[in-house]
Every structure is written in C-alpha cells, then in structure tokens.
Design goal:
The complex is a heterodimer of chains A (217) and B (409). By secondary structure, chain A is an alpha+beta fold. Chain A has a domain of 133 residues: Gamma-adaptin ear (GAE) domain (Immunoglobulin-like). In chain A, the strands form two sheets. In chain A, strands 1-2-6-4 form a four-stranded antiparallel beta sheet, with helices on one face. Chain A has a four-stranded antiparallel beta sheet with strand order 5-3-7-8, with no helix packed on it. Chain A is rod-shaped. Chain B is an alpha/beta fold and 409 residues long. Chain B contains 13 helices and 14 strands. In chain B, strands 7-6-8-9-10-13-14 form a seven-stranded mixed beta sheet, with helices on both faces. In chain B, strand 8, helix 9 and strand 9 form a beta-alpha-beta unit. In chain B, helix 9 runs parallel beside helix 10 and helix 12 packs across helix 13. The longest helix of chain B is centred in the N-terminal third of the chain and has 26 residues. Chain B is elongated. The termini of chain B are far apart. The chains are: A alpha+beta (217), B alpha/beta (409). At the A-B interface, helix 1, strand 1, strand 8 and helix 2 of A face helix 1, helix 6, helix 7 and strand 14 of B. Strand 8 of chain A pairs parallel with strand 14 of chain B. Chain B: It comes from Streptomyces mangrovisoli. Chain B: Belongs to the leucine-binding protein family. Chain B: Keywords: Signal.
Chain lengths: 217, 409
C-alpha cells in the first residue's frame, strides 16, 4: 500500500495522546497510575542500582568522550620543507656586454634564479666544472632568495688556460651549492643550447690568436 | 528520581549516538576500491614482463596498477573505473607491435603506458597513432621518438599520440660526458654499444659531447646482446689504454662486460645510462664493480617527498617485484592518462564521448600535475618538461647518487 506522506509520521513535542485509564487518570511511565502506587520507601538495593546505573552512564560518557578525543581527526604533521634543488630554477637570459666593453677573456652571462616555494634558499657557491676557467658572479655568494621571488645573476668566466678550455661544449653546466632549512646540496644546472652557443663563441674569441695578439700588443 | 532516570537514559543514548557518530566519521575517509562503477576504462601496459629486462618491466606494470587502484579508491574520475591490461613484449620490437595491435583492438583501452625499450617504441608508435590511442612511455630516451630522426638539426614531431615522462638521451649522453670528463677527470674513453636504438643512440650523444670537451675516444666496439662472452672486447679495452669505458646498452650485458673488463686487469670504471641503472647490474658485475657509474633520469628518490609517498604505497600494496628504475615515471605516466580521461569526461558532462581516444590524446598535451617525479607536463614534442638527471656510483654493493643536474634550456 502506498503511503500518502501527509501528516506527521511520528508525534512531535506535545502531540502525544496521554494514555489514560477509563477514569481519566494519567499513567506514569511504568503504566501505573500515581494514585494506584502505594507510597513505599526505596530499598537500598534499588537505590544502589540507580547509583550504579548513573555511575556506569557517566563512565560510558567519559570513556566515549575520551575515545572520541583520542581518535579525533588530527592534522597530519607538517611536511618537511622541500630540498632546495627541487624548488630552484636557473635559466639563461643572455650574454651581457657592459657599457664600457668587457675583456674578451672575461665574458659575462646573465642568469635568472627563482625559488618556487618553501623556505628561502641561499646560494653559497656558484661555479663551473671546466678546467682552464674560473667563475665569479654578481651578486657574489652567499646570497639568499625568497620563495616567489626572482634574482638576476651575472656570471663572469675568467679564462686562465686556453689549452684546457672546452671551446664547443654542447651542454655546459653551472654548478651551485644550495642551502635551505632542509639541506645543503650540490646541484648542476644545464642552461641549454643557447647558453652553450654563446659560451662557446665567447670562449673561442677569448682564446683566439687575434685576442692573444691584441692582448700582448 | 524519575528525572534522574531520564537523565541517565538520555546520557546513555547520547553516548551511543556519539559512538555511532565516531564510527561514521571514520568511515567517511574510505572509498570503495571499485570506484563508482559505470564506465570501465582500461590502461594498457606494454613492457618486458619476462626475460632479462623483466625486473624493469614488472616495476612498470606494478606502478601502473598502483596508479589505477589509487584513482579508483579516490573515485578520481566520477563514473569511471580504471583497470589495467598488461602485455609482455619481451623487449622485442615485433612482439611490441603485436601488442600494440591487440591493445588498439580493445575499445576500452584509452591509453597505454610503455614500452621500456626505444627500439620497441619505434615499432609501436605508428600503430597507436593511426588509432589516435595515446601512449606514454616512462623509459624511452631516444630523441628521435619525439623529435624525429634528424633531431640534431631539425626537430619535427613524428607522432602526436606519443609522450614520455623520461628525459632524452640528447641530454643524458652529454650529461654523462660532462661528469666523466670534468668531475671524474677521465680523458680517454673506449665506447661500446649493443647496436640497438637505445644503446647506439646514447653512445653517440655521449661520444659527441666527450670529444667536444676535449676527451679522446681511444676505441669503439659493438657487442652482440645475445652473447655473454665479451672477453675479446675486454682485451681490446685493456690494450687501448682507456681510462674509462662508456657502454650504451642495458644491464644484462653491461654487468658481465664490466666483470670481464676488470678481469683483464684494467681497473677502469664502466659508465652507462639508465639502462644499466638496476641492482642486477651490480650482481652481474661482481665485487669489482665499485666505482662504475650510471646516469639515470630524474632526481634521487630520497630528494623527492612525493616519491616517498609512492614508495610507501607501493610497499603497502605488497607487490613481489621492486618498482625499479622507472616505477615513479610509470606511475606518473599512468596518472597522466587518468588526468586526461578526467578532463575529457568533465568536458563532456560526466560521460566519455564517442571519440574518447582522440580527445584523450588531445587532452594529454595540456596535462599538468604534481607527480611522483615532480611536475609532470609535456612540451610541443611530447617530451617531459621536467628534465632532471642523476649520476650514480656503485659503492658498497649499491647505487649511490653522486651528482644531480637539471636541464633548464
């Protein structure tokens, strides 16, 4: 049979019809009219039972509350900050020619260093691995970069021994030491073919006979 | 007293209700492993599941399985349940091509993870591309797969359905050369390869860069990958005066090769790419392998918090085999397919469109998410934009990371 869905399904507050005896007297919860109940003194075991029930209920509530508190959803421990090499990006911007010109044996290149997220990262060293060249930078290490910010770095290659200079490296490295609150790491950045091309061209110029002749003159 | 009874009963009911509420709140975090039912989408897998390279292939399979189960558990794509179908290519191009045809014939397959070998990929690419079925390899490193055969001069993407999460040998070979020449200070190399697409290509990119840096190639040789006797080549290495050997190939041959080279008395390191980066190499090469080097794609697992979660979940899933060198990349490859399916379903009112394969392939180009191996997205060639590499050295019978680099060009 279908249910109409009209009308209260269950009685609401104050809508209970009072159970009545034929004489109209209300029943107590035990179904006994008060007037029918002989006044009697509560026995000790009965009182004891009530006290025990109340105590047990209180214990259950305490235990339940304690259990809920102990098993409440807790925020997971905060993740450790990322390793610095995972948040730092170093990209090549281009070769830099100062207004007054630069020494052919000290070509300069601009890089952009950014930190994507996490605590600030300090560059404690910047260099390159090839023999015959040393590197300096502006700003000079150590320098600190905050997350979300970008820093322009100009590196200068100082050619010290043309015999050991790789004049046509395909993927030259820029080696940096990075430090944040998580770790200190050595990491290599490979700025790509445009940097490789500009660096090779500059090093070939720096080590050409013409340059040597010019410098010796 | 009646009032007290009511209080006691109310309190008991409240306690009961609270307990039920507590149970309910715990259940809220759980989802059915079967997802929400509805459409079933299959992620195909092609890898060597048997044979010498099965250690890598099974790691790929299990990692994809973990990704599918995770997506189902999270009900990540509403109305879609993912399942996997794994095919064994035994590292053979012909088997790979048959598997590709079989996967294309299964209409429920909307993406494929694999293969391991670049030579196998070459045989599969066109089959998948004709069917507009997306393929994401976690391990192929040969540049031609994404940039065309003439990649050194003109980059042209041959197949729009092919993507990979691993970086290429256009970077891996030079990266190894830079380390060997500048950091390890080795200047005379003997180069050996297995004549296969991956091995020969990697050896070539290493050699080019090594020579540009000023290094000398004192000998070259090819080996037969079906052989385990490399004594003749080992003797040539010994007599060449090389101070390092570069091997383009995989660990089943690289291990015995290293052992036999050391046995001649040539105490020089053998260096290889990601194809030798497996514990099996060390077992095969023996105790004299200390100091041998391998480059591999990505950063070391210990540097990636996201990878730690993957490792934990992989162990909890109880797979028998290790996730190996490409586990994280395989999980990310599968998740890229899941993301692409999600995009297509969301854009189509919660249902898969009739041309789902083509749409998933198109969606893959713009997929971007934080994966196990870092940010996962693809460039215009289908190559991973995350281009990290690490040099590992054999120390105390295990691979140890010694230098990591990031390509930012």
């Amino acid at each position: 049979m279908a249910v109409s869905g009209i009308g209260p399904v269950e009685p609401g507050e104050g809508t209970h019809a009072r159970d009545t005896h034929s004489d109209g007297g209300a029943l107590d919860p035990r179904g006994v009219r008060p007037s029918d109940s002989p006044p009697r003194k509560e026995s000790w075991p009965r009182r004891h039972r009530r006290i025990a029930l109340a105590a047990a209920t209180a214990c259950a509530l305490l235990a339940g509350g304690g259990y809920l508190y102990a098993t409440r959803p807790q925020k997971p421990a905060p993740a450790p900050p990322p390793f610095p090499s995972q948040v730092v990006d170093l990209t090549y911007l281009g070769q830099v020619t100062p207004a007054g010109g630069s020494s052919p044996r000290a070509p300069r290149f601009a890089m952009r260093l950014s930190v994507s997220h996490g605590p600030p990262v300090t560059v404690t060293r910047i260099g390159q691995p090839s023999a015959g060249i040393t590197m300096s930078s502006t700003p000079a290490p150590p320098f600190r970069t905050k997350a979300g910010s970008v820093r322009k770095i100009v590196i200068t290659m100082h050619v010290t021994d043309c015999g050991k200079v790789p004049k046509n490296a395909g993927l030259p490295f820029v080696d940096v030491t990075l430090r944040n609150t998580r770790a200190m790491e050595e990491h290599s950045f490979i700025p790509g073919s445009r940097y490789a091309h500009d660096l090779s061209t500059a090093l070939q110029v720096a080590c050409s006979n013409e340059t040597r002749h010019h410098q010796n003159a | 007293m009646r009032q007290r009874s009511l209080i006691a009963i109310t309190a008991a009911l409240a306690a009961g209700a609270l307990t039920l509420t507590a149970c309910g709140s715990r259940d809220n975090g759980k989802s059915s492993d079967s997802g929400s039912g509805g459409t079933t989408v299959t992620i195909g897998i092609d890898a060597p599941l048997t044979g010498d390279l099965s250690a890598l292939g099974l790691g790929i399979k299990n990692s994809v399985d973990l990704a599918a189960k995770t997506a189902n558990k999270q009900n990540y794509v509403k109305g879609v349940t993912f399942k996997i179908v794994a095919k064994d290519d035994q590292a053979q191009p012909s088997a790979g091509q048959q598997n590709a045809t079989s996967l294309v014939a299964d209409n429920s397959v909307l993406g494929v993870v694999g293969p391991l070998n670049s030579s196998v990929a070459q045989s599969m690419q066109k089959v998948f591309d004709d069917a507009k079925l997306v393929e994401v390899s976690p391990a192929n490193t040969n540049p031609a797969l994404t940039q065309g055969d003439d990649w050194q001069n003109t980059k042209t993407r041959p197949y729009k359905s092919y993507f990979r999460t691993a970086t290429t040998d256009a970077i891996q070979g030079p990266f190894a050369a830079q380390y060997v020449y500048n950091d390890a200070k080795k200047t005379k190399v003997f180069v050996i390869d297995d004549k296969k697409t991956y091995g020969a290509g990697l050896a070539a990119t290493f050699t080019t860069e090594f020579k540009k840096l000023g290094g000398k190639v004192v000998g070259t040789q090819h080996i037969n990958p079906d052989s385990k006797d490399f004594s003749a080549v080992a003797t040539q290495v010994k007599n060449s005066g090389a101070d390092v050997v570069y091997y383009g190939g995989e660990y089943p041959q690289a291990g015995p090769l290293s052992k036999q080279i050391k046995a001649t008395g040539a105490k020089i390191p053998v260096v290889g790419g990601d194809g030798i980066f497996d514990p099996t190499f060390i077992k095969l090469a023996g105790s004299n392998a200390t100091g041998d080097l391998a480059t591999s794609v990505g950063a070391p697992v210990e540097d990636l918090d996201s990878a730690k979660t993957f490792v934990k979940n992989y162990k909890a899933a109880g797979y028998k085999d290790e996730y190996a060198a490409y586990g994280g990349y395989s999980y990310d490859s599968a998740w890229a397919i899941i993301e692409a399916v999600k995009k297509v379903v969301d854009d189509n009112g919660g249902k898969l469109p009739s041309d789902a394969r083509a749409k998933v392939t198109a969606a893959m180009q713009n997929v971007s998410f934080d994966g196990v191996t870092g940010k996962v997205s693809f460039d215009e060639y289908g190559d991973a934009t995350n281009k990290q590499l690490t040099v590992y050295s054999v120390e105390n019978g295990a691979w140890k990371a010694v230098k990591s680099g990031t390509y930012t060009g």
